[in-house]
Amino acid sequence: MKTDLNLLRVLLAVHETGSVTGAAGRLGISQPAASAALGRLRKALDDPLFVRRGPRMHATPLAQGILGKTREVIDVIDRDILTPPTFDPATCKGELSICLSEIGEVVLLPALYRLLRERAPGLALKTLSLGPDDLDQAMYEGRIDMAMGYFPDLTGADIYQQRLFSHVLACMVRDTHPIRGPRMSLEQFRRAEHLLVRDGSRTMEMYEQYILSQGIKRRIGVQMSHYMSVPGLIEDSDLVVVLPRTIAERFARGGRLRVLAPPAGIPRYDLKQYWHRRFHNDPRLRWLRGVVFELFDGYLAEPEHDALLTGRGPASGGPGKRRGGRKAPSRG
């Protein structure tokens, strides 16, 4: 026999309050609804369940026999199943899996790791790099908790995204390079010998598509797949490399390299955090998204510097902008 759980709640409430009216008040339903529920349960069990004596209704032997188990079942459901799960970062254990590009690991990971060590010391970080199709499936399956960076292909209806900050590309040359000034002209850009990094990221793919669409011809002297060897090659040559501004400025800290604005028009791009709708309400991941937004909302927001690097004013827009995927709430 299948019995609606709500009928058992009425049974327990009538026993504890002594009347159908009292049970209805406790459960927040009408008195006729409570009476009808008790009637259905009486019919299902073929027993009156309660008999009135004076002002109270008293349980029959059958009702008394099931009341104890009914209370246990309802307590378990209310406490362990229907109560929203909680998350305490200070005491939690486990692993967070985040999809990051090589640039994302350099730019975003250190600050995130430091904050997690302070607030969630029991959580370990694991980063992976996946293509858009594999990434969508991995987030659906829970193998990847979130993605951070520039992932314009993550536009499915089940993918939420939240803008963190806008970023720009820059040119980098050796400190004594004959090209002077804060910006490289288009003519200087065309004449220069270029070091081209094809790291498989969508950022550099976007840059290459822009160059192609504008019909800009370059002279490629060196092509490579990683950034680690870039500073040494640039320091000892007249090569020019285009790369994300944060990476260029990090490489230039030693004083032997210079960061220049590229020719006007090279587009900026938005870095975002992405997650799957299936895990939108997971308290652990809600907390993580809030931490990421706290760290990187408006990160690198230097309008004058950005305007110089892009040849236009600073980007507008805030977190939670939708591009294909679902619009995200402002915090997790």
Automatic annotation (TrEMBL):
Compositionally biased intervals (Basic residues): 320-332
GO molecular function: DNA binding; DNA-binding transcription factor activity
InterPro entries: LysR-type_TF (IPR050389), LysR_HTH_N (IPR000847), LysR_subst-bd (IPR005119), WH-like_DNA-bd_sf (IPR036388), WH_DNA-bd_sf (IPR036390)
One family name in Pfam for this protein: HTH_1
Keywords associated with the record: DNA-binding, Transcription, Transcription regulation
Region (Disordered): 308-332
CDD domains: PBP2_DntR_NahR_LinR_like
Domain HTH lysR-type, first and last residues per copy: 3-60
PANTHER family: HTH-TYPE TRANSCRIPTIONAL REGULATOR LEUO-RELATED, TRANSCRIPTIONAL REGULATORY PROTEIN
Family membership: Belongs to the LysR transcriptional regulatory family.
Name the UniProt record assigns to this protein: LysR family transcriptional regulator
Classification lineage: Bacteria, Pseudomonadati, Pseudomonadota, Betaproteobacteria, Burkholderiales
